[in-house]
Specification:
- This protein is mainly β and 477 residues long.
- The protein is globular.
- The mean pLDDT is 91.
Length: 477
Amino acid sequence: MGYNYMDPGAEAYHKAHPEKPVMGTETVSAVGTRGIYITDHDKGYVGSYDPYTTTGRASAEGWWSFCNSRPWLLGGFIWTGFDYRGEPSPNEWPNISSQYGIIDTCGFPKDSFYYYQSWWTSQPVLHLFPHWNWPGMEGKEIAVWVYSNLDKVELVFNGQSLGTKDVKKDSHTAWNVKYAAGTLEARGYKADKVVMTTKRETTGPAAKLVMTPDRQQVSADGEEVAMFAVAVQDAQGRVVPITENVVTFKVSGAGKLIGVGNGDPTDQEPDKGNARKAFSGLCMAIAQASKTAGDINVEATAPGLTSASVTIQARNVELRPQVPVWAREVPKGAGITGLWRPVPGAAEATGLISFLVGNGITVFTLRQDGSNLTGTVEGAGGGFFGGSDAPVPITEGKVNGTDVSFKSGNSTYAGKINGDQLELERKIEIPFRMTPPAEPSGTRPAIGPPPDGSDPSFNLSRRMPRGISVVLHRVER
């Protein structure tokens, strides 16, 4: 039996059916913005501290602790491995991407990456966060966490030990530290010996760029790409976590620049460009090989900073066979038979409503046979409830004069034919309701995790509409 998120429901099912195998087919949906530790919905950011929940949602630690302590549970698929464009959750426009990922849209690891690495691998892990650049927060408490799979962790702040704590299986260690500029050091112990150390230091100002390619060689096939990560560092070689220097890229030789990024879920700058600001100290360029072997030279520059350059090789290869470009079938026939898409701007949909409408990507393939209507709806925002890219069959489709109605997935459409347009009302059956968590009690750090039981994967200020206007027009592709 596969289940999505509902850990308590899975446990109840197992008790009733102990002979049945059980696995999580979609789990966690923990959200966080890389390098950000204060949730600010107005800015579109979510703090990276993992809240502890027991519902199966929003918490990496909550879900894995549940899963790993139950031998009858086969495991689960985490939503998601990486952030992705669209479904800008838990915030909406002007966010451009989800924040569910263990890594961001550029492949830069978030803090939760190291939680999973601690408990899913045998390699020693010692990951300390947050960063330690907090001007204006002097004297205020900040939650300091360590993800590790060692026996014990000691935290040292500006040379003074703040104590050693045992590492609980499938969990983390934590301290509250009053902020002052300086150095946090985590020391990891195995068999009472220090085997690893890591630091977070208050950095100096940005001084230089350091660029690292993800590979040293690519195929000269006109297809393969290489990614070039750029870190903004201070004079001592430490990544500056709160800088926004604009980095400009230049690619020469046997390749071309095809994209830039930084993993910021709020950044509206085009990916098809030659410059990107650093986000939490990092940004990236993507270069694609040509069909000619040779050197690919990549240079990164930023005003006032020492530049960086890297050269990789493009080697000769046999080109793979090519296939024709896929073309969508356009049905032909009477009445409203054909391809239809939403008229841009006609429904005045913005934010979450725009996403649910399909934001212009929806395709309605309609086939009218007398008063019967069949076909599919593709990309209708169904990704919010699973699988928006797969065509969903139309059921109960009817055409009566100018009246049109049909169902597809969790949506019902009804309206009229008006000339060369279909003016429809879409009603959505939303399969869940969210309630806010209880107010936290006691003193909490100025920067730290949300209260236990919180679900940052939902912004409760958002209101799910039950009806949406959709205006369609005919298209040929």
